[in-house]
Amino acid sequence: MTANKAVTYASAGVDVEAGDRAVELMKDAVKATHTAGVVGGVGGFAGLFDLSVLKDYRKPYLATSTDGVGTKVAIAQALDIHHTIGHDLVGMVVDDIVVTGARPLFMTDYIATGKVVPERVADIVRGIAEGCSLAGTALVGGETAEHPGLLAEGEYDVAGAATGIVEADELLGPERVREGDVLIAMASSGIHSNGYSLVRKVINVAGWGLERQVDELGRTLGEELLEPTRIYTADCLDLIEAFPVNGEDGQTGSGIRGFSHVTGGGLSANLARVLPRGTVGLVDRSSWEIPAIFRLVGELGSVPQADLERTLNLGVGMIAVVDPSVADAAVERLNKRGLPSWVLGTVEADTGAYQSNADYVQGAKGVDGGAAVLLGNYA
User: If pLDDT is split at 50, 70 and 90, which confidence band does 244 have?
Assistant: First the structure.
């Protein structure tokens, strides 16, 4: 029997030393996110968090969420720019947690790649750490996996998970929402991290390159498409603090009722899932102008308006549902924090008057709750 050449892990395409170098390059950025509750340093088998720092909670609920950034990573890979994807990942995860009223405590990440390039992995994780810092969330651990043969050398995907905490009697949700409540829009920073399969298809069919300078955008197409997802956690928590969820009697007060994170499915589908059955969110299209990138995608691909609205955020990344008595003050507060915001619409009883409207959405994403409908024309 002829002896075969020795097969090693390295010859199979996995470079353990490269992974170690990546950890060295990223660990200072990770440490910078650590809060008082984090136990231990970087490199352990598991991230540890000391729950005794939460001892003053009366009846705490834990909230958890996991997500990725979808095919936006293909844009980052094509441009060889990797430090912004981390912001996208954090935003997609922690802003799903804050809609419950929970404060995200810690996060972990997972990166799968065809070949570990330490500098590239470190760029991705630095971006995640920056995003965590913006959200006030500790990055307590992660994993980088090298998958040769499954992914090409320049390919990677990212995912993350986070855990937050909220008092049981301060949990936000549809049960708090009332007829007459006001919807407040918080501007998106761009496409965020949803709908890139549509966007990439449009630009490919049009034959546009990512390096193309686009006057309407004031920069290249690639720069626009890589604009990081805006992270709303700190702004939402500030609103909750300024306009308490509960009144003095412990019941729903004149404050924040809930939030809707506008991600996959667009504005209507995500708004409907945070409203109670029997109500409808009436969204006034004339309250805002669709940003240039969304108009460009629609025109370039002849994408029907309904399809755009079901796929992209169209300039609204987060919605707050608030008591009408605090609506103006909430808008003013958000704008003072540098987050463009405006009154988007209202919550009304669903009498059936809008159910024949083609834009009417009810029971979205498996939630048999309220409804939402977009009315009028965009500004």
Answer: confident
Token pair of 55, please?
């001892």
Tell me the Ramachandran region of residue 136: left when phi exceeds 0, alpha when psi lies from -120 to 50, beta otherwise. Answer: left
Q: Phi and psi at residue 209, in whole multiples of 5°?
A: -95, 155
How far, in Å, CA of 358 to CA of 344, rounded?
Answer: 20
Digit-coded pLDDT (tens) for 63-95: 999 999 999 999 999 999 999 999 999 999 999
CA of 288: how far to CAs of 109, 181, 229, 345, in Å?
35, 19, 19, 11
Give DSSP secondary structure letters for 281-326: EEEEGGGSPPPHHHHHHHHHTT--HHHHHHH--TTEEEEEEE-GGG
Which phi and psi (to 5°) does residue 80 adopt? 55, 45
pLDDT above 70 covers a percentage of the chain that reads 88
In 10 A of CB 263, how many CB atoms? 23
Cβ–Cβ contacts within 10 Å for residue 272, how many? 26
> Is the confidence at residue 248, as pLDDT, over 60?
no
Amino acid at 185: A
Neighbours of 348 (CB within 10 A): 15
Q: β-strands 138-146, 103-113: how paired?
A: parallel
The reported pTM is 0.92
**Residue entry with tokens 């500030």:** 238
